[in-house]
Amino acid sequence: MNVSGALSAMRRELGTSLLAWIPPLLMGLVISGLCAWCAWRASGEGLLADGYIYLLMADAVQYAPASDALDWRFLFGEYPFPPLYPLLLAVVQAGADKPLQAFMLNAGLLGAAFAVLARWYASLGIPAGPALALSLSFALLPISFLTALDVQSEPLYLLLTLTALYAISRAPARPGAWLVAGVCCGLAVLTRTVGITLLAAFTLTLLLQAPPRRILALLCAWLPPAGWLIFRHLEGLTASYFHQRAFAASNVFGSLWQVVWVNWRAAGEAVSRSVDLQAAAPVQIALAVLGVCAGVVFLRRLCSGRCDAVYLLTYLGLIMLWPYPEHFRRFLFVVLPLAGGYAMSALDYALRSSSSRRSASAALYALPCVLLSLATPSLLALRQELAAPSNVSAVSHTPARYRWPSLRMAVLAAQAFDPVVTLLRHARTELPAQACIASAIPEQVMYYARRPSLHLIHGLAAPASVLRQCPYVLMLAVRSFPANGVPPMFPFDALRAELEILDVARVDPDDSISGARAILARYRGAED
Predict the structure, then answer these.
(1) pLDDT tens figures, 284-300
(2) Each residue of 195-239: pLDDT tens digit?
(3) First-to-last C-alpha distance (Å) of the chain
(4) Does 246 reside within a domain?
(5) Range of the domain at 501
(6) What are the angstrom distances between the C-alpha of 503 and each of 161, 378, 430, 431, 473?
(7) Quick one: which of 46, 135, 347, 440 could link to 117 by a disulfide (CB 3.0–4.6 Å)?
(8) CA dist., res. 451 & res. 513, Å (int)
């Protein structure tokens, strides 16, 4: 009788759990459809720098023979990106010539991530309706649509981290959830290196709670990143995220403090621009109030040793030391939903102490409404630009558009870069297959010219040292974005006598005496 009753209770629990997933999954399908529509006309041009590399890595995994200069060994040797996302791109046959598959993959990943987010909100004690509405509001923020326009690993990373956190919230009742969380943590590190913060938080939580089969859960979490590190070491892949950003050895603390200060300012701007592209003052004030509410719950959960709070603390601590402030909107995209859950938990607690449960639940819908009202002007602007005529859609459907305050300026910038693209595509057909082209924009060089490229930042003091390894060089009349310290037209002045000019991209392609936007040259001091 007891066994029968237990089985019946398990069936009821399973049925209730499955029913609870239906609304989030339906919402996820809608979000995937919206993101797919948003990215349908997007192209591989105008991506952020990492997007070019991911597509090239996917191509190298799928097609590149061992003799190809852009094979996986070169790309993973020059860029320290973990392998899971480019491998997934290869599975769906995305690549430099087929970026659409990458956009559709990310649309699906985003929909799944926001479905899991709604369930994680419910695990915080937030009623199902407000939890779903809050997840939907984050899915509709401008930052979510900008993410859908790019080829980045954030959608996969967000899905893995939220799945791990949700599984941990279920672990006390279901010990097998620790194994699921461990697998997701290990895969998160194979998606983004900063996932080591989730792995650390998971390990600490697991050791403190000491559930059954914790050794197996730890192995599930640690073996994937350990295996990747061993593989990189054995293959001699030594790329580092810091190889283009050097600290002065004599003043490490001063350099770190400068990075933290720059990142602090970048983080404040990134939060507001994730909701409102113009970062209006009222939006900043409203988000600051919500941030205070979220901070209270965050501190309470941190003091209780909750995995999500430990993860958030370590994640934010690490990215504040990460010397890439221009990418902070991407970095914060994967943790802002956690802060939103904390803010709603604070609101839920305050309302329950002063009103009935039903009225408190209804009032919780105010937070998603506030977020969407703050984002509405930007969402309307996005909608208008995404429906722009075909002559500007190639710009309006790219993340590069949002480096500029207006579509007109973004179009002018893209038009100014067009002659450089033409030059690189010409180099693709004219230069030898193994020709290496040094440049301040190596990602775009490899994408358009399909030739290996080394960064000129390594040759600021002695440019000839780089050009002996990489004898072709692309010199730009403008500074690259993000700024990396390479001067315009470097190293033309330093090595003019040793450079053989091969091609010139001019301001006016039809005027042979107009100024140069870019020069492709060969360093004659290199060995043939």
Answers:
(1) 999 999 999 999 999 99
(2) 999 999 999 999 998 888 899 999 999 999 999 999 999 998 887
(3) 86
(4) no
(5) 407-523
(6) 47, 42, 11, 11, 11
(7) 135
(8) 28
User: Coil, strand, or helix at residue 241?
Assistant: coil
Q: What's the structural domain count of the chain?
A: 1
Q: From the CA atom positions of the chain, what is the Rg in Å? A: 25
| Chain position carrying tokens 């033409």 | 422
Which parts of 140-251 fold into alpha helices (H)? 142-148, 154-170, 177-189, 196-209, 214-235
Strands across the sheet containing 437-438: 437-438, 472-476, 516-523, 499-506
State the SS3 of 65-85.
Answer: CCCCCCCHHHHHHHCCCCCHH
CA-to-CA distance for 206 and 370, rounded, in angstroms?
A: 37
The string of DSSP codes covering 398-435 is: SGGGGGSSSHHHHHHHHHHHHHHHHHHHHHHHHS-TT-
Q: What is the DSSP letter of 457?
A: G
Strands 472-476 and 516-523 turn out to be antiparallel
Return the beta strands (E) in 314-462 as ranges. 437-438
Q: Considering Cα of 258, then 263, then 268, then 269, what sign does the dihedral take?
A: positive
Across the strands, what pairs with 210? none
Q: Are strands 472-476 and 437-438 parallel, antiparallel or unpaired?
A: parallel
Closest CA to 84 of 198, 186, 7, 179: 186
Average pLDDT of the chain is 89
Query: Do residues 168 and 202 touch, judged by C-beta distance below 8 A?
Result: yes
Within a domain: residue 426?
yes
The DSSP string of 20-74 is: HHHHHHHHHHHHHHHHHHHHTT--STT--HHHHHHHHHHHHHHT--TT-TTSHHH
Q: Can you read off the two tokens belonging to residue 334?
A: 């994967």
Q: From the centroid of its chain, how far is CA 226?
A: 22
- Please report whether residue 382 resides in a domain: no
Cα dihedral angle (410, 415, 417, 418), rounded to 10 degrees? Answer: 140
**Nearest 5°: CA angle at 114, between 43 and 333?**
65
| Residue 437 DSSP SS3 | strand
Q: Does residue 520 have a pLDDT over 80?
A: yes
8 A C-beta contact, residue 106 and residue 39: yes
297's torsion region: left (phi>0), alpha (psi -120 to 50) or beta?
alpha
Closest CA to 311 of 205, 420, 461: 205
Per the domain annotation, does 457 fall within a domain? yes
Q: Are 105 and 87 in contact (CB under 8 A)?
A: no
The arithmetic mean of pLDDT across residues 495-506, rounded, is 93
